[in-house]
Amino acid sequence: MKKVIAREKLPELWKSLAAKGPLFLPIQEGPVVLFQPWQEGAEINLDAVNTAVSPKDVFLPREETYMQYRCSGKQLELIPAENIEPVTAFGVHPCDLKAVEMLDKVYIDQDPPDALYKKRRENTTVVGLSCSEPDPFCFCNEFGVDPADAPGADVMAHLKNGSVLLEARTDKGKALLEQAGDLLQDGSKETAEVKDVKTADFGLNLEGLPENLKERFEDPVWDELYKSCLGCGVCTYVCPTCYCFDVEDFGHEGEGQRFRCWDSCMYGHFTAMAGGHNPRAGRKERVRQRFMHKLQYYPEIFNEIACVGCGRCLRSCPVNLDIVQAIKALGGETVEQR
Q: How many Cα atoms are found within 13 Å in the side-chain-facing hemisphere of 183?
């Protein structure tokens, strides 16, 4: 099923979709674009190459309560999280949807699966959006991602001159287009005006890298690579494939809640234990852990490197210590510190 909508009618489409549940879109907030819940009057930027932070927040919120409790004498009542309502994520680029599929392997393709994540994934209709222009920081081609297509999308959208072509690929996608009704026109004869987008070529040598790193835990390269790191953690927060979280309890003996929130392996206290031991107390150990997880630990389990080439770490790291620099350093190239 293919449909077309004029770009000037998109605000009507946003309103229609938001009436059925939360709608997330790339929204212009000052100088940055953020993937946020839609509100009438919001400035939507579908032309942005990437949002500052990835859309993983839709599926793995920065903070979420997954259990409440009440105690009365010897009676304990456990209250599960509230029902998760249907959500639409509109404008997810191919690299970010590929990253969500990587999170699926961690949170769903396990026994048992993570119930909250699984429910959010099932209740979310994803509208993918092809990239029309290259960005100097994007290098998704290096990891086999096609900027023009997101195979896992429920609907694939393409920006055209003055309109948007919407192609339903799943039952959820068809239901979304049918919900829009007369706002959409028949697009069965339309074709996507997809450009051959070539992202940056950093000359990364990825062949055999995960296997090669198995013997390089004590490699001298780590002694130099970590030195510029500030431990700010911004790389993990903007990264679409990072998924570490902390678990906290809030309340008192009568009632309270248990919640989880994003955390970062780049923080000094991340691996601190109750007895005082910390296996990754130094920046060297934390930098090594981050890149070894991306390039060796995750691939060892799931057979693919945990990077989609979105370029967010290149844009955000204040000292230029990103995954491109790490791969080059591991390949023997000199890494310029700043």
A: 20
Position 332 scores a pLDDT of 80
Nearest alpha-carbon partner for 233 in 205, 257, 262: 262
What is the number of other CB atoms lying within 10 angstroms of the CB of residue 214?
11
Element (H, E) at 32: strand 32-37
CA distances, 115 to each of 40, 57, 84, 172, 234 (Å): 32, 16, 11, 20, 28
Q: How far apart are CA 184 and CA 180, in angstroms?
A: 7
Distance CA 219, CA 209 (A): 14
At residue 134, the pLDDT reads 75
pLDDT band at 334 (very low <50, low <70, confident <90, very high): low
Are residues 94 and 128 in contact, defined by beta-carbon separation less than 8 angstroms?
Answer: yes
Most confident stretch, 66-75, 116-125, 249-258: 116-125
- Rounded distance, CA 210 to CA 226, Å? 20
Q: Look at residue 215 in the predicted model and tell me its pLDDT.
A: 92
How would DSSP label each residue in 85-132? PPEEEEEE-HHHHHHHHHHHHHHTSSSS--HHHHHHHHTEEEEEE---
Closest by CA position to 177, among listed 164, 191, 190: 164
Percentage of the chain beyond pLDDT 90 is: 77
CA distance 50 to 312: 8
Residue environment code for 179-208, b if the CB has 16+ CB neighbours within 10 A, otherwise e: bbeebbeebeebebebeebebbeeebeeee
Report which of 18, 10, 53 is spatially closest to residue 37, judged by C-alpha positions.
Answer: 18
Alpha-carbon dihedral of residues 47, 123, 144, 294, nearest 10 degrees? 110
CA nearest neighbour of 307 among 134, 144, 110, 109: 144
pLDDT at 338 over 50: no
Q: What is the mean pLDDT of residues 183-205?
A: 82
User: CA–CA separation, 42 vs 38, rounded Å?
Assistant: 7
Q: pLDDT for 165-178, tens place per residue?
A: 999 999 999 999 99
Report the alpha-carbon distance of residue 133 to residue 90 in Å, rounded: 18
The dihedrals phi and psi of 12, each to the nearest 5 degrees, come to -70, -35
